[in-house]
Amino acid sequence: MKKEQLYEGKAKKVYATEDENVLIVSYKDDATAFNGLKKGTIVGKGAINNRMSNYLMRKLEEEEGVPTHYIRELNETETEVKRVTIVPLEVIVRNIAAGSLSKRLGLPEGQKLKKTVLEFSYKNDELGDPMVNDYHIFAMELATPEELKQISDYALKVNEYLSRFLLECGIVLVDFKLEFGRTADGTIILADEISPDTCRFWDAKTGEKLDKDRFRRDLGNVEGAYAEVFKRIMG
Ligand code: UDP
Fold this sequence. Notes:
Bound molecules: uridine-5'-diphosphate
CATH superfamily of the largest domain: ATP-grasp fold, B domain
Order of helices and strands: EEEEEHEEEEHEEHHEEEHH
């Protein structure tokens, strides 16, 4: 049973439950980009992201042994998750140059990277989520060395698994963002979501963008792209 609302983010609301270790996440159709500067609605996004993220987290947990916050899906847009304290890092994994990496380093969008790139940003809206390295992370005590090693290992494992699985669905996993949390006993688990809001998905044949870049860059047919990825992944 849903109790009081604890938090409202850009794309989700979080509610308490009778169990202090369990929260309910409710996905919204609201979309934002550029640190909240651009706002809009993507009709049906809440349900798609909820169901897709749950499906992928279940697979990662069952098939790869990656622990996640997922407990059970309650309905189209709501899911029970384990309560965690979010590690204030955005963990970004990149296979192909795009977005901020292309801008920063002058690499053309679409250039395959010779080696997978792992990046961390400090989750802080006021500062615009600045990129940090392991020295900053330890100096600011955002995570311990052991936690960062665990987070990095999980992130690379998620990349291996999802890249292979998505390619079977005709989708190239260009890059994505993960967030991790600590449970009450300090265990690191995968939290937040895995969806077209947080990943770059390109059609394997045509290179067509099937993710939030359609919204960010006003490419049109945003709903269609979310529905297409959903259909390909969930059958
Ligand atoms: N990303 C995200 N939330 C953020 C920033 C990035 O989910 O606040 C995802 C984004 O969708 C992409 C990847 O992380 O799949 C890399 O994003 P990038 O650093 O290129 O930033 P962007 O170009 O999206 O601003």
